[in-house]
Please model this.
Amino acid sequence: MGYQKILASFKKKKILVVGDVILDRYIWGTVRRISPEAPVPVVEITDENFLLGGASNVAHNVVSLGGQATVVGVAGRDRSGDILREILKEKGILCNGIVQDARTTTVKTRIVAHSQQVVRFDRENRDKVDGKSLTMMLDYLQEAIPSHDAVIISDYKKGVVSQRLVKEIVRSAGKKNVFVAVDPKVSHFRFYKGVSIITPNLKEASSASGIEIRDEKTLIQAGKTLLKKIACKAVLITRGEHGMSLFEKSHVVHIPTVAQQVFDVTGAGDTVVATFALAHVSGADMEQSAVIANHAAGIVVGEVGTAVVTHKKLANSLARNSKTIK
Model:
């Protein structure tokens, strides 16, 4: 299937995003002097804004590409949680799957001056989500999974993604043949058995496989090890400026990057998993999905801050490089 048909089908697809919802706060400013109190820059604030991060950003990528997204996770009963839900609603993302908990909403605050990040500070609670909150999420998922085309598990290790949660998702999705993609965390790899695909970066793939990736030979060994270990259909290893490598049981494909310039890799993994899942359920095979996701990643790394790729930008990128897709 050609990429134009695949992209045209995005608007018909419903994606369920499960995981750690994060509010990204950006404080923008300029630096003209060093503090007399300590050898640190003094940032004169010029602007402040809030963006969606973590699982919320995955969902934002889905709707920006033209798909429909529902997000499931946990947010606090605090001002940050209110802001998060307000932004989700503004973007047209269904958020009735977000459970309100006594825990603090995860907020990552970045201070940026002259397009350079000066410092980041986080407010979060990484305790495992259990009890009533977990039960509410599982009940919601059981009802929602059959009516969605894919499930994306966005694991930022903030307490939402557990072995039990993933097991229930895989079980429910398996009954209806629903595609399950995971943007993983190394210490949770044992949770992901039976999912459709995982999308680790190079460092995560190396740590999870126990193989130091130094060259193409060790890269292939690591990818095949993960494929067997997770018992999934495919592994997509993102390799920064070197592109991506897709591992399936039958073959391995290396996809070169299409990024023209790299300003900020924040949220690139969110874009990759969102685009891949949306493309695959829209009729693309694994390799086509990886190529399309690679183009999407090439777009977002060229922007400062947590960015999303639009349907138009992705279509233009693919049109300029039409020979890179089957």
User: Anything to note?
Assistant: The chain has one domain: 3-324. The two ends are 8 Å apart (CA to CA). Residues 3-324 form a domain with the UDP-N-acetylmuramoyl-L-alanine:D-glutamate ligase fold (CATH 3.40.1190.20). The mean pLDDT is 93.
